[in-house]
Amino acid sequence: MARVAAESTIGGLVKRLARPEGFSALRISNPSSSDVIGSEGGGLSLLLRRWATKKAGGSTQNGRDSLPKNLGVKKSGGQKVIPGNIIVRQRGTKFHPGNFVGLGRDHTLFALASGQVRFERNRFTGRKWVHVDPEGGIPIHPVYQDMKIATKENATSENVAA
């Protein structure tokens, strides 16, 4: 019996909506709808009401960073180095390669001989140089090894003999 009543109510609603007056002639009376907040427009307003929703959050534009490049002086003045040790990592040539120091393609300065690191600054140009003082002193080129060192004693003895 309840099923027949429900069908007749739904069928009656469809027939009333099909009339030319449409929704304006539709009256819905429900005693419990007056208890609902915001139901001043009747039961139909509950059907057409937009409820509160949460929009999807967008992604942030911050929050990304590059990896550290680890630039700077790696061996300070007076420290011992072996060939291949990195002395300075830099962008551009803030420090210039001096004696027994090589320059990499990314401007990294590295030791070419074992010894101690020495930093130098030119007074006139302000340019900074990095040197490695080799252990045992600076080697003499083979061309000059056999030459005698001119001293005052050698020079005076040669002048007297001549």
TrEMBL record:
PROSITE patterns: RIBOSOMAL_L27. Residues 55-74 are annotated as: Disordered. InterPro entries: Ribosomal_bL27, Ribosomal_bL27_CS. It comes from Riccia fluitans. This is Ribosomal protein L27.
